[in-house]
Amino acid sequence: MRTLMLTGSLLLLTGCAGFGLPRHDPAQAWIDLDSQQEDTALQALEVDDKTATDKRYFEVHPGSHELTVRYQFPVQPTNIGPDAEPLWRDCLLNVKFKDFNAGQRYQLQAGNIGFRPWAKLYDQQRKVIGQGTPAGCQST
């Protein structure tokens, strides 16, 4: 049984490895997602209250948009108590920006300070052009 599970997992990983990001449409703005730590997850959820087509990035028409992301991260015991285990948080953040430009690449980064998540939107020159606002968190 273990051999079957291991083989299935390896085949799944091999199949996923060949599936990269699509080409960037020059008529739209592209927003890459980046979490600050290795053991976290950042996913695209919605653009203007509509489900995102891919959880790995956003691609939007020029203009004003509100992006919603899910950020999952562990709160370390140093922020909880000396005998505590890491506590996982599952948070939603909204980022509004009024001037996405066609052909431009942006980067949305997320991180946390203790229990509080944060998100920042950067332009191609690494200038902060937007900040995320928390839209709810839960512990898992």
Biggest sheet record: 9 strands, mixed
Distance between the termini: 30 Å
Unreliable sequence segments: 1-18
Strand pairing plus helix content: what structural class? mainly beta
Give the total of domains. 1
Side-by-side strand order of the widest sheet: 3-2-5-6-9-8-7-1-4
Number of helices: 1
Helical percentage: 10-25%
What share of residues are in beta strands? over 45%
**Total strands:** 9
**Order of SSEs:** HEEEEEEEEE
**Rg calculated over all Cα atoms:** 17 Å
Molecular shape: elongated
Protein name: Lipoprotein
Organism: Pseudomonas silesiensis
Describe this structure in words.
The chain is mostly beta strands and 140 residues long. The protein has one domain (27-139). Helix content is 11%, strand content 54%. The protein has 1 helix and 9 strands, in the order H-E-E-E-E-E-E-E-E-E. A 9-stranded mixed beta sheet has the order 3-2-5-6-9-8-7-1-4, with no helix packed on it. A hairpin with a 2-residue loop joins strand 7 and strand 8 (116-122). The longest helix has 16 residues, at 2-17. The protein is elongated, with a radius of gyration of 17 Å. Residues 1-18 have low confidence and may be disordered.
